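Deliverable D4.2, example record:
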Amino acid sequence: MLTGSVPSARPAPRQGSGNRPRRYAVYGTGHRAEMYVNAMLHDFPDVAEPVAWCDPNDTRMSHYTALTRAAGHAPVHYHPDRLETMLRQERIDVLIVCSPDHTHAAAVCTALRAGVDVVCEKPLTTDAAGLRAIQEAADASPARLTVSFNYRYSPRNTALKKIIADGEIGKVLSVHFEWLLDTVHGADYFRRWHRQKSSSGGLAVHKATHHFDLVNWWLDDTPETVQALGGLKFYGTNGTGRPAGPRAALGRDADASDPFGFDMSADDHLRGLYLDAEAEDGYLRDRDVFDEDIDIEDTLSVLVGYRGGSSMTYSLTAHSPWEGYRVSVNGSRGRAELEVVERAHVASGTASDLLAWRADTPDAPPNTPAARPAVDPSVTPHDAAAAGDVRAEGSRLVVQRHWDIAREIPIDENGGGHGGGDGLLLVDVFRGPEEDPIGRQAGYVDGLRSVAVGVAVNESLRTGRMVRTHGTEAV
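Output generated by the structure prediction step:
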């Protein structure tokens, strides 16, 4: 069973010993590492110093080293086989884990056993064995393990948490949560390493742990039972979304009119991290989303029962024409409804149009090369709206108590990734949490509980049965 509480009484120190910046290493130097590296260089140089990278691909590490050199840093490169050596020789204070999901557990446990604080990208791990190993290491270590659930920090999600915590709608009886990924962002999970469940745990683990954590946090409750249905219905070799005719094996070779093409050469960051690095380890970032070896689901329907008596129906669609989410919370005194539209539509275009537009061109007109649709609109949001589109991008929170009219709750949206959540998360990560009455910073117990639901989803899909989550283990 999961025991204890989030270890908030052990905050990350603001500086290393002798009032020096804390020494950071990044484990996994793919695209996600960029947020942390930029933060250390530009926003938190007084408390954070990047001193080492750990990745099997030296080209990717060199890409980040080039970015840090101008700021006077020269991080040392290490292969993952030498993680323990790196932690010791470089006197690492904090390890940031951004590697593929199936490698998280080993890296997290190694750092915790060495007494090194860890900041881990979600999910903490992909299976029950990893959950047990991490809980054992975290319970035995004096070091702090933080999970970067940035969606907790989004003002819209914080606003819903406050409505529930303040008792506006009474005791929560049920939740309906629908998450929609569009055919740019959703498709991207099916061309990368995420397409293999052995690497990612599938979207029930890799993506939905964000969502399961939000509900666990909103309700302040523990999930106990899971029943799931789902499958690979749109992508894959037999997917209903597959265009007619033969397909190129790689997105860069797709026909110019193929909306599922993906040409990394037009983007400096993606080219440096992946295209230029292929010769070193053979990893292909742009495989076709309709390949035959994809084994994760693109459509999920889940029922979760909570210890406190409430329930959640959860839906994930990775092939929607628009991206965002809807949450309905039914309480004994009324109902709260949150709708978020992160991207109202995706226009069919050429392969190069589907690259991420860069954040340094936010004012470029829509449908120009400088304003390509972001792969993940929650990370690089934009304001481009198509003429005649009735779906408006933005957030709306409505509360209606029994026998009363509905009222809209103002949301103080911040700029930046994940609805403004990234910036707020990074402050807590690098400067340590300040007073936080709603508990936004997630500890390892939160990370374990969210993954436990995803692991149980996979077990229910495999067996067709309801699965009971006993803490870190789905049985």
